[in-house]
Amino acid sequence: MECDDYGTLMLNGQDLIRLSGVSARNIGAVQVGLGAGYHLLVLKLFNGPERGWLTLTSTFQGESRSLLGGKELHPVDLSRFGAWLSAVKGIEKGGWIFFLVSLALLIILSFLQTSSRPAPVKAVGRFSPEGDETQEKGLRPIHGQAKVLVSLWVILMLLGLSHQIGLVFRLGRALPPLSWSMKCPDPISLFENQILVIRPYLPSRGTIGFLSDGEDTISLFRLQYALSPRLVTPEPGPRLIIGVFHDGASLRDRLKQGDLSLIKDFQNGLVLLERKNP
Amino acid sequence: MFLVAPLLISWLIGVALTAVWVPRGFGCWNGLFRSALAWGLGIGVTSSLLFLWLLLYGSFHYGFFFLEFGLLLSALIFLILRSPRQFSRPPAAVFDESDAKIEKRFRLGFFLLLLIGMVILILVSLIAPHGDWDAWAIWNNRARFIFRSGSNWRDAFSPLINWSHPDYPLLLPLTVSRCWFYLGRESLAVPVLVAIGFSFSIIALLVSSLGAIKNKSQGYLGGILLLSTPSFLTHGASQYADLPLAFFILAAIIPLYVYDHSPVKDKTGLMLGGLLAGFSAWTKNEGLLFVLILCLLRVGRVFFRPFSGRHWAEAAFFLSGLVPPLVILILFKTTLAPSNDLLSLTTWDLVTSHLTDPKRYLLIAKTFFTTLFFFGDGSLPLLPFLLIYALWVGRSSSLGGLWSFAPLFLQLLGYLLVFLLTPQDLQWHLGTSQGRLMLHLWPAFLWVLLAQLKTPEEARKRKNRPLLPLHRFDGSDDTGFPLLKEPPTPPGWLHNGRTSMPPNPLKMGSSSCGLFPRPSEKVRKAASPFPFSLCGLFLHVSMITKGVSLGKLD
After folding, report:
1. What does the buried/exposed string (b/e) look like for A217-226 if buried means 16 or more CB atoms within 10 Å of the residue's CB?
2. What ipTM was reported for this prediction?
3. SS3 of A245, please?
4. Facing B152 at nearest CB: one of A44, A103, A205
5. Which of B463, B497, B553 sits opposite A145 (nearest CB)?
């Protein structure tokens, strides 16, 4: 599965692939055995700020078949529910205004309380024009400012807790399913597993070329990380070249130019090429 | 256990160094402060040693272990010899009952947020054990090169992989590869532990130092604010070099600030500040800017003051701490690092065209203020809250001044200048780095601000002071405001030996709140539960809005 930003593949209610992180091309792969009969396949995609894409490819007995192309996806029509969602999003955007206003109100009201609630002092011979009743009401065990302090503490804690708990939920949702060995199938680990098949064909060090059918910087960076200490460069020159081709047709077009020969197609979007005249 | 052994060794070396360098006057929280500082100091020293070893011997060798063990042994002997005097601490400050209550609340809040913060750091590490983009593309990639290449470790700085910024300093990659050398294998847990260690060290450093120079409540308040910053927590485990840099900036600011404001002029604090500033430059290129600013402020001001041996001595102590890590950095930059991509792409024509382009200024200003206002990546802004809190509690008279913010302000200004001159696409550059750059300064900013603000206890005492102090009941109040002649005492005004404050007819509605008229009793009754209901409402709205933002990920 490949997608822009966040994508999830679920089979029969179980998460198989969870791709996360803001990236133009997230790649994930999984191998599952399916019994005869119907299976429920659910795909989720989240991308922003523009429209995203998702492709799903299955490989069965060495044959690749595209199940879903990026152009086949359309946003869901939410009709009135969409308007409600927009309204709630508006509240989210205005959340900070609400926060500031409430904080300002809180402080103003606390000042009002303080001015009306006298602090106890050992004093004699004071005159109160409001008489005894007011003085009795003034004798309260909690001072106004102490209440403000408690209120500020509560606001501070709410601020911290709302931020932290929100983050925990967000991360919890992005967490891929854990195995007993606590190994997460994160995109980098998946990619490293994907290129294990190429390693035997490569020298232990030296420079490897890189070729792609698009501007695929993430694959270049991931290859460099996975193949270190070999140097991976998109510059022309190296004899051995790793190609990342998402489309078989573009690979065939590239090979038609005649300066490269195919050493091996690993059937997972990766190919090993050799320059004919290095 | 074996996994943490290399980090424990570097930490112990750091502990020994703190015994020499930590200035006196850090009171009862000395232990936590030293431990937090030792984390960064140890990592700075051991990574520098490994770099020198690789440069001299060409590859890693087991002799390096003996070098470190020798250093550790001599450090331990030094610690044992000095411990009776160095670790004698002054007694903790005694708070009265009300202070203890406030402190208890803040402590509870801090530890609650710390607990959830730990869960967040673990979750982030589980989701991305290799770290975020820059972590695996730059920092861990370089660590792998150094560990896997053997004698060809210089390949990590090949111009063929210029896109991976091989000119970036090596504190973080060398720390990770040093641990792998100890273990004899690569382990994803190492960069995770290093990153989380730096996050906790920043929290510990902030809390302990504020607790020592102000009081514990202020320390916990600093910790709460830091832990309420979502971007701090997500970056805490992202394995980027931004938080280690933030650590060194904070750690350098503290001893320099304490030296400037303490009556005890212990110059070892200046040396420590210089050393930590030097390690900030060894962590990230932005640290070089910080070093430059500190040099301008601390050394430059010697020339603008009347000649004094003390000022020259101060500058000399600061530079003596700064020079060792700076020498390591210069060695790296001159022997291995290719030229910086920003510098190499910048031409004079580009500089002049960018400087005279008003659109760039507007875009930078717009993005800067938006990032500043919404800093922290939370659903609610932190800085406005902090501003209101600061206005409420007020400034402490004993410590500080706006001058203390100068290094941070100049650093921010330097960042904005880099954005103005960048040869990269400005929108992209701002979008990918401005939040992180502000994170470098956030812990230090919090520290300097809270060091200057009144503590919650001080603020409460100030606000609760009698409106008209009796000892000044001589026809004027403490503001010099004239009072009416004292009228005869009405009967029945004294209750249980305490009295309420009589209102001053001339200062009605202008004594403590200043602007607002006294409300009626009905309004007061209605208003009293309002702050708490506001909190409840705030909680609900924040949960609703958070729920919507969570839904974005599905």
Report:
1. ebbbbbbbbb
2. 0.76
3. coil
4. A205
5. B463
